[in-house]
Design goal:
Blueprint: H1 3-6, H2 28-55, H3 63-89, H4 97-129, H5 139-166, E1 203-207, E2 210-214, E3 219-225, E4 228-233, E5 239-241, H6 245-252, E6 257-261, E7 264-267, E8 271-277, E9 282-286, E10 291-294, H7 299-309, E11 319-320
Parallel strand pairs: 8-11
Antiparallel strand pairs: 1-2, 3-4, 3-7, 4-5, 6-7, 8-9, 9-10
Helix pairs in contact: 2-3, 3-4, 3-5, 4-5
Length: 322
Amino acid sequence: MRSDANGGGSGTDGDRPSRSRGATAPGPAFWGLWLSLLTAVALANAASEVTEAARLGDPIEAWKPYVWEATSALGVLTALPGLVWFVRRAPLARRKLAKQVALHAAAALVFSAVHIAVMIVLREAIYALAGEPYSFDPWVPELIYELRKDLAAYLLIVVILNLMRSAGWLAADRPQSAVGAGRRKPSPECPDGSCTLPPQQSLVLPDGTRRLQVDPRSLLAAKAAGNYVELLREGAAPLLVRATLTEVETAARPFGFLRIHRSWIVAGDRVRHIASTRAGDFRALLDCGLAIPGSRRYRSSLAALLRRKAPLCREANPSLPD
């Protein structure tokens, strides 16, 4: 079938957040980068199609491949904001793989539907202006052809967006949690609306060039994650801040947090037991059922805390597997 029908697609049609967790949507530089990338790929693909057609002795009107590639790129660009929104709220992770596969399968279908719809509408309009008909027939083979390309393009774009997110080039988005009684409205220092205490009683953490205000009562533990720290909160999704664990530990220490591992700090008043592991380390068992790994060098300080809290808390005898 000639490319008028299948309209070869553009080569790109197809823990971690940005430097500023409270940042708004990506700015002009971000979109300019993607526009430039899609434009470059579309031009290269169109030129290749013209050259290949001439080489095979089946020349085509030169403007058509450029229309096919440009409309395909515009279809991707139209679908891209929704894909950016999705990646900001649901980045790739190793947890809940089945759920992630289902979510990304649905998102890929939406991405492909938007891409194909925009592509067809634009091509029909441009061909009409040129006085020629445009046909997407036969529909089923053409949809399968475009869907196959779009799935590959979707995976590539999602990987790139997640890498940009990890590198701090794409602002992470946080869903607005329900605002309960007495909960403060979102503010520049509390962008997710999670603060329920006045500023002087809130935990203020560094987050790149910003300061993030967190309710210490909701914080269970914090884990080092590369250039970020993952905050585990009760009743809320984990929160990533651009800081070191030492910085978070220093800020959280007045609220009863202590280091139990080179990669973990924990809310001391939430620890109920210490359970040994066969390797000689331990697990700190929290009142909510969460088990946080601890190393032997930090065991004494946590054990001392639990002794001060006795008889409610005591060191547990049973050992946990490594």
